[in-house]
Each structure stands twice: as structure tokens, then as C-alpha cells.
Design a protein that fits this description.
This protein is mostly helical. About 50% of the residues lie in helices and about 5% in strands. It has a two-stranded antiparallel sheet. A hairpin with a 4-residue loop joins β1 and β2. The N and C termini lie close together (about 10 Å). This is Transposase tnpA. InterPro entries: YbfD_N.
């Protein structure tokens, strides 16, 4: 389990930016959460120790507002808060993602974080 408190999650060279290069394979109809945000949440959950889809879903729902904002979660103006994707949304996105592209993006980001002394 990694401490992600010093990791660059948003902005230049952040996890969200790194994951924006992962190809989108979802149909445009019904997309409410950016793929990079979903993948960022799932990546952080895994690095924090999640070992099942249920645990990833719990991590997403338990994320503080500040973390959801940094991970590119969708902002709901009526509720005035960031909304984590539902467990089913995360599972569907992960089931259709290009795993090689995801692996390359996360691996490169982790390498950069270690070199920078953030992890």
C-alpha cells in the first residue's frame, strides 16, 4: 500500500493527465464520467490496497471531495459536490479499457513519481 499524499494526481505530469492518453472505447451515449477520472480513481484505489472491484467501488465512494476534485471527478452543480462514479460504471470502464495502454500510462506515471521523490 502506497501513501499517495505527496503524489502528483492533477495538473501537469499528474495521474489524470497521464491517463488521458488511454484510448476511449465506450459509446458516447450515456458517458457521464471522464475515462481518465475513472481510471485515476481505480488506480489510486489499487495503490491504496484495494484488491477487488467491490473495494475499488468503496474507495471511490469514500473519497474525500478534495481527492475527487484532484482526480477529475464530475462536479454536480445542484448537489454542489464532486460525484464519484458508481461501482458498476468503474467495472464497465475497466472491462473495456486497453489494458496495455493503461499499464504503460500508470507505469510511466509511477516511474516519474518515484524519480521526483513523491512516492
Amino acid at each position: 500500500m502506497l501513501d499517495l499524499s505527496a503524489a502528483t494526481l492533477d495538473g501537469k505530469d499528474g495521474l489524470v493527465e497521464a491517463l488521458q492518453g488511454v484510448p476511449e472505447h465506450r459509446k458516447l451515449r450515456g458517458i457521464r464520467h471522464p475515462l481518465a477520472s475513472i481510471l485515476s480513481i481505480a488506480t489510486c484505489a489499487t495503490l491504496a490496497g484495494a484488491r477487488s472491484m467491490a473495494a475499488v467501488g468503496e474507495y471511490a465512494q469514500d473519497c474525500p471531495q478534495e481527492v475527487l476534485a484532484r482526480l477529475g471527478a464530475k462536479y454536480h452543480p445542484e448537489k454542489k459536490r464532486y460525484i464519484a462514479p458508481h461501482h458498476d460504471t468503474i467495472q464497465r470502464a475497466l472491462s473495456s479499457v486497453d489494458t496495455a495502454a493503461l499499464d504503460r500510462a500508470v507505469g510511466a506515471w509511477l516511474y516519474d513519481q518515484v524519480v521526483a521523490g513523491n512516492l
